[in-house]
Design the sequence.
């Protein structure tokens, strides 16, 4: 079949489709994107089910296996390895072209246009099943499976659907057989983990896809350049299912295989099961975004949220408000957490026009050091006056977020936890250390979002799995981590400008992430020393740590990331002592956290990125960051007619090369159609804010 697929893409598609469809025992079907550029093919015969993807007639994904594998249980047919021998019962097609709107994203209006092909399949032959204590063998009706394929202009998506059926009331799924096969020699940006129990916070690296260690779990997205296009592999609509990793084939080929996160081991459970479900059921979408290049993908990633269902109309999410937040952890890891310090941070948030303050670990229990567990009460520690803090914040127009370990929430109970938070006047919870994406944890997160919404509480998942677009379904799930973020500056030299230059094209391609940008303790990477190596130890009980954390890159680089990175809760990492009165701070005043429109302009993963964003209030922000010095030109064709004030916060060519904190702050009048140029230093950046005069 591989040869037949290759022949198909080597000729006009219509001719080869007829040839392939006429082959004995082969059912070959296609769905094409609305613009006609992407073609997804599906075929099934005695050798199994396969799919392939082409763009403008060029093969991107070679014929790749499809299927699922069940546990070897009596109820599902002993010896059943996968649904390989399938025949097509029916094919249903439809097209859709709608829009949906949001005030909590990178773009206010999103188009949802696709062509869909739903293939209804059933086993070619009925299988024998042994049932009952006597192990009686009976003949069972063939089981049915649907494969739903969608082709968008932005990419393709498919999912497995298990319809309700007498012969197949439920199942225990151990894995998928889904593959993504690419041509030899392709390179990819990947992030990998040693085990499937991981908070998904490793950096992305580029290398030959065939060289990825098959023992590692490959995270999302995977960025692949092939066939004159760039693909991003990811998943969407992760609901009541196990999260997906990729695994390298390990045979020298550029092939990725699906790996579903397994349920926690239990004596009562079948080993190695990933999903337990009753029919009807459906998997998440397996998604391939397709662009001309890496920057083009950033114009198309709304597809991930689009593939998620809209919010439950029975729930009221009007309480969800985006905005920036002060934070108490990054500088001293809560070593100085106190009521008085928290009041000062709230005052600064109000001063800056930031609507939130986040209290991290150590506010509950019995010590400043974070503690948790069923024996630790979920109540403010005796020397921390949460009631005073919340009352003061409310008077200042600031909402209070609190950190809680997920096990603490689970021990107290979801309903009781969020009832307490609502009673205390807390507006959001930052829950941490989930470090799993098995079906149980996925469902726990869904329950958290629902119960939190009922109590008008927002949620920030830390130490959690990657974004799959759930922010559309749960607007109160306002951000999440799953990113190698600024906190790592405390412990290692890994959050380099080069690493930061990968993030818009990788982790932020999936959705919002709580990177916690914005330090004003700026140093070049050659001068950077992690805080832990300067005498600070996490969890010290000292009153003040003499060695505050720093960030690599220039001051303008740090400010630009606060504009480039997506997080409706934009947590700023540094403290008032370093912000107040500092050069460049005005760029962060009343900092927007969501956007009416986002226009990626240029960039390259790991090198640089430039973007223009429009606020819901009609201002425009231009933000660019780079690893190596470069000159960037910006044509002001996005402005409306009339005069605009352009406020610029940029590297100072005269001072910045010797001092990463140096920044030039200027302003002048500009008009639509002008071209302005900016000179960025090594590890530098620029922000330009356009306000109508």
Sequence:
């Amino acid at each position: 079949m591989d040869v037949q697929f290759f022949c198909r893409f080597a000729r006009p598609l219509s001719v080869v489709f007829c040839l392939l469809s006429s082959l004995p025992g082969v059912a070959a079907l296609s769905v094409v994107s609305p613009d006609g550029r992407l073609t997804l093919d599906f075929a099934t015969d005695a050798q199994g089910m396969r799919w392939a993807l082409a763009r403008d007639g060029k093969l991107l994904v070679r014929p790749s296996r499809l299927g699922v594998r069940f546990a070897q249980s009596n109820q599902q047919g002993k010896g059943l390895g996968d649904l390989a021998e399938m025949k097509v019962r029916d094919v249903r097609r439809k097209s859709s072209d709608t829009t949906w709107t949001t005030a909590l994203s990178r773009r206010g209006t999103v188009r949802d246009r696709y062509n869909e092909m739903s293939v209804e399949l059933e086993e070619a032959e009925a299988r024998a099943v042994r049932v009952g204590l006597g192990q009686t063998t009976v003949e069972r009706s063939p089981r049915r499976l649907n494969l739903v394929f969608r082709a968008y202009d932005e990419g393709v998506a498919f999912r497995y659907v298990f319809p309700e059926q007498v012969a197949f009331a439920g199942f225990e799924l151990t894995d998928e057989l889904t593959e993504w096969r690419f041509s030899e020699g392709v390179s990819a940006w990947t992030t990998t983990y040693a085990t499937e129990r991981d908070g998904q916070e490793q950096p992305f690296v580029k290398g030959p896809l065939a060289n990825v260690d098959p023992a590692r779990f490959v995270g999302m997205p995977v960025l692949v350049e092939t066939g004159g296009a760039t693909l991003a592999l990811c998943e969407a609509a992760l609901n009541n299912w196990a999260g997906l990793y990729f695994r390298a084939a390990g045979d020298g080929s550029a092939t990725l295989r699906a790996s579903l996160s397994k349920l926690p081991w239990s004596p009562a459970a079948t080993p190695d099961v990933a999903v337990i479900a009753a029919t009807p059921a459906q998997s998440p979408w397996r998604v391939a975004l397709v662009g001309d290049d890496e920057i083009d993908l950033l114009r198309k990633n709304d597809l991930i949220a689009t593939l998620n269902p809209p919010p439950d109309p029975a729930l009221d999410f009007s309480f969800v408000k985006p905005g920036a937040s002060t934070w108490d952890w990054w500088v001293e890891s809560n070593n100085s957490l106190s009521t008085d310090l928290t009041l000062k941070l709230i005052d600064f948030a109000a001063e800056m026009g930031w609507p939130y303050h986040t209290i991290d670990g150590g506010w509950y229990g019995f010590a400043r050091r974070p503690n948790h567990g069923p024996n630790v009460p979920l109540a403010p520690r005796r020397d921390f006056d949460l009631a005073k803090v919340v009352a003061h914040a409310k008077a200042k127009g600031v909402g209070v977020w609190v950190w809680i370990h997920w096990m603490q929430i689970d021990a107290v109970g979801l309903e009781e936890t969020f009832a307490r938070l609502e009673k205390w006047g807390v507006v959001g919870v930052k829950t941490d250390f989930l470090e799993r994406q098995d079906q149980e944890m996925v469902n726990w997160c869904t329950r958290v979002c629902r119960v939190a919404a009922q109590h008008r509480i927002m949620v920030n998942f830390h130490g959690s799995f990657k974004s799959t677009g759930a922010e559309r379904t749960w607007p109160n799930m306002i951000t999440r981590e799953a990113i190698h973020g600024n906190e790592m500056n405390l412990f290692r030299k890994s959050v380099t400008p080069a690493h930061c230059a990968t993030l818009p094209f990788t982790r932020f391609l999936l959705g919002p992430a709580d990177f916690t940008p914005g330090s004003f303790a700026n140093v070049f990477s050659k001068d950077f020393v992690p805080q832990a190596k300067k005498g600070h130890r996490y969890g010290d009980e000292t009153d003040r740590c003499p060695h505050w954390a720093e960030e690599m890159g220039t001051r303008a680089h740090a400010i630009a990331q606060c504009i480039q990175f997506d997080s409706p809760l934009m947590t700023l990492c540094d403290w008032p002592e370093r912000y107040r009165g500092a050069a460049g701070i005005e760029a962060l005043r009343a900092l927007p956290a969501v956007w009416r429109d986002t226009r990626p302009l240029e960039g390259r993963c790991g090198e640089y990125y430039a973007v223009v964003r429009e606020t819901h209030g009609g201002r425009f922000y231009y933000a660019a960051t780079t690893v190596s010095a470069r000159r960037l030109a910006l044509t002001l064709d996005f402005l409306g007619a009339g005069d605009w004030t352009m406020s610029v916060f940029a590297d100072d060519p005269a001072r910045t090369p010797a001092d990463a904190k140096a920044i030039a702050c200027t302003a002048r009048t500009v008009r639509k159609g002008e071209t302005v140029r900016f000179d960025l230093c090594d590890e530098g950046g620029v922000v330009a804010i356009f306000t109508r005069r």
User: Anything to note?
Assistant: The longest helix spans residues 439-454. Residues 324 and 354 are 5 Å apart (CA to CA).
